């Protein structure tokens, strides 16, 4: 049996990235429901008022369903980006739940990155059989959002004791490695913001993100027990990073 060609491998990677990103809405809704059930036990409110919450989740599931079946994927990816933007804004201005500043940066920066990921998908990137030319303006906007996310990661590693300790406790090299990562994230952010070497930057980020998800985000004991991040909130944040991983897979092969 002949090994798969390079073109077949690239097609598989693109399809895998699109598979992850188009299913994000399902995981996000599930983790939100579990989070609010977790809060109900201690009589804490959800981030969004209940009447709007139902419409928000219905919109997310609708967009995810149509994207998963490949029906008008560009339009529903744009709808998913709009839904997540409105949801994040409503959560931010609602103020029903108090978060520490460091946790706000983690939550909202990842939401911005996923919005950017959906804009990349809405541009037509990642389509195996592209019938219409991609919309470069949407892709560029999505890349800028990913760059903003990386800038927030740099900020967190420099100014958030919680994030710094998460890295210092779980990566070899200590402070030197953290500073090297800060420089690397900064360079990658400049690449996404400027539009230069985006494919290479995406490939590097596609290697980094699984390690971050596994060793940093996946350390549930540190975030949940030591930093008091709600269990399902941390699972939701892991889902955000996985969705970002799907986007950089697409940009790394079809950017």
TrEMBL record:
One BP term from GO: positive regulation of canonical NF-kappaB signal transduction
InterPro entries according to UniProt: TMEM101
Tagged with keyword Transmembrane helix: yes
Domain of life of the native organism: Eukaryota
Keyword Lipoprotein in annotation: no
Membrane-spanning intervals of the chain: 12-37, 49-69, 76-95, 107-129, 141-158, 178-198, 205-225
Keywords: Membrane, Transmembrane, Transmembrane helix
PANTHER family reported for this sequence: TRANSMEMBRANE PROTEIN 101 (PTHR31034:SF2)
Protein name: Transmembrane protein 101
Source species: Ameiurus melas (Black bullhead)
């Amino acid at each position: 049996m002949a090994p798969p060609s390079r073109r077949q491998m690239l097609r598989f990677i693109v399809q895998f990235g699109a598979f992850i990103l188009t299913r994000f809405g399902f995981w996000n809704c599930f983790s939100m429901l579990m989070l609010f059930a977790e809060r109900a036990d201690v009589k804490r409110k959800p981030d969004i008022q209940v009447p709007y919450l139902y419409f928000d989740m219905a919109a997310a599931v609708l967009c995810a369903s149509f994207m998963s079946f490949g029906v008008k994927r560009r339009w529903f990816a744009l709808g998913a980006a709009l839904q997540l933007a409105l949801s994040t804004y409503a959560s931010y201005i609602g103020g029903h739940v108090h978060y520490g500043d460091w946790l706000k940066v983690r939550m909202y920066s990842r939401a911005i990155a996923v919005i950017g990921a959906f804009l990349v998908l809405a541009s037509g990137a990642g389509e195996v059989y592209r019938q219409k030319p991609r919309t470069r303006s949407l892709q560029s906007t999505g890349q800028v959002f990913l760059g903003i996310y990386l800038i927030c990661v740099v900020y967190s590693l420099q100014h958030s004791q919680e994030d710094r300790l998460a890295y210092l406790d779980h990566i070899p090299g200590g402070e030197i490695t953290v500073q090297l990562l800060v420089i690397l994230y900064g360079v990658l952010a400049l690449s996404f913001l400027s539009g230069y070497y985006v494919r290479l930057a995406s490939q590097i980020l596609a290697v980094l993100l699984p390690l971050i998800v596994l060793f940093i985000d996946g350390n549930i004991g540190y975030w949940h027990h030591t930093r008091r991040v709600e269990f399902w909130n941390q699972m939701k944040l892991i889902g955000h990073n996985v969705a970002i991983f799907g986007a950089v897979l697409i940009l790394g092969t079809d950017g």
